[in-house]
Amino acid sequence: MSAIFNFQSLLTVILLLICTCAYIRSLVPSLLDRNKAGLLGVFWKCARIGERKKPYVAACCIVMAFSILFPTP
């Protein structure tokens, strides 16, 4: 099933996007900073969310990992 139609998969994809963008920005800041507007601006915004809300994103990643590893029947 596509991640668009499954809510848990959609949240997983969004969390992975936020974490990946924040990691790439920590390695190469100029790569994401030059594209602050337009379609590629989504990646810059995800990186900013990952940087500013780091404890909340980490907690969501841990909760998501447990929900994937130990699903409820």
From TrEMBL:
Annotated membrane topology: Single-pass type I membrane protein
Matches recorded under Pfam families: DUF1242 (PF06842)
Stretches that traverse the bilayer: 6-24, 55-72
Subcellular localization(s) per the UniProt record: Golgi apparatus membrane
Superkingdom, taxonomy of origin: Eukaryota
Entries under InterPro entries matching the protein: KISH_domain, Ksh1
Record keywords: Golgi apparatus, Membrane, Signal, Transmembrane, Transmembrane helix
Family from the record: Belongs to the KISH family.
Functional note: Involved in the early part of the secretory pathway.
Name of this chain's protein: Protein kish
Organism of derivation: Balaenoptera acutorostrata (Common minke whale)
